[in-house]
Amino acid sequence: MKILAIETSCDDTAIAILEAKNGKFTALSNIVSSQHIHQNYGGVFPILAKREHQTNLVPVLTQALQKAKLLKIRNSKSQSIDDRQLLEIKKILEKESGLYEFTKKFLETYEKPKVDYIAVTCGPGLEPCLWVGVNFAKALSYFWDISVIPVNHIEGHILVNFLENNLYYKKESFPKRSIRFPAISLVVSGGHTQLILVKGIGKYDIIGETRDDAAGECFDKAARILGLGYPGGPIISKIAADYRGPTPVKLPRPMMHTKDYDFSFSGLKTAVLYETKGKQLTKKYISQMCFAVQDAICDVLIKKTLNAAKDYKAKTIILGGGVSANSELRSQFEFKNKNAKIKIIYPPKELSTDNALMIAVAAYFRLKQPHFAKASRVKEKIAWQKLSVHANLRVG
Ligand code: KG4
Ligand code: ZN
Q: Nearest-5° angle of CA 352, CA 358, CA 363?
């Protein structure tokens, strides 16, 4: 079975093709086009991101199919696209007029690829961005007559861990990873910070989440204050890693000792703002601040997650989302957990941040697990006409 997956929930335009055969997976392609336009603004502007997705989707699809060896020029004998079909595609993409022209050209040039399903992120995310991906999926589904599987982005971040990661690096077929339940998943990104009790694939309860900013947002806002650009996490992490020695900068650890599993990061961002006020942003000071911000975020995330894992007798901790790419977070997690016999798993870094392979994996499990569709808020494969977006979609 081959699944073509589309992800446009934020500022990455991503398309992947996953092959599942005899219980093994092969990532035939996994293309991510990150939008650099937001670097100048210190955050993502939905309308700009939507425009970029419209421009990027067709080139990314072409690249993904080519890499998967599924791109074939249309045979001159193939039936041409009739006016009725073009009209329907135009109607589907009426709010993405830029995308319509690219899509028309693409469909006129290339054959229907040999894929069995189209998966697409339908939420949560930035609504205008989600619509571009969903409408593109609708247009392809209609024209190629291939069913669509709507996918929850957060489930994607969790379930990508079910690929046997070490083998994924070899780019050959890799089996499903066996994970012991119950598990506690920390999904931590630019838009989300959630602790999720995972009782099995498709069986989730959100047990805690941020009451204001997400942890990734805190990295991004701190980077903006320090004049480091966007996204903030990777650059702060790099500067912090190069810094050796103690830092005089002291930052709070909001809600670290509360008994619940909730988070709050807006106070930390405000503390960075106050700390830096009137200070000269020298190289040394920026390094110290990066180190302090990263340390504070890691402390809170790890303490709360380990508490939850202990309270729920978790056998596994599953990390996911852009912030889980942070090397310091990973190593501090391993270190602070070394006496507890809980296995900590996280994806390869390229699969921690937004990508479409995780959407394909989640779609695969949706098809394979009968209880999955029921447990999730979105239904199993559906007719393209019924596809919609849910900007605030939740798991469980
Ligand atoms: O999952 P993701 O790619 O997109 C969302 O769903 O939001 O996460 C993006 C977030 C950004 O806030 C970015 O600054 C953060 O993940 N991030 C990192 C690292 N790489 C990305 N944060 C800390 N350390 C990193 N290495
Ligand atoms: Zn994400």
A: 160
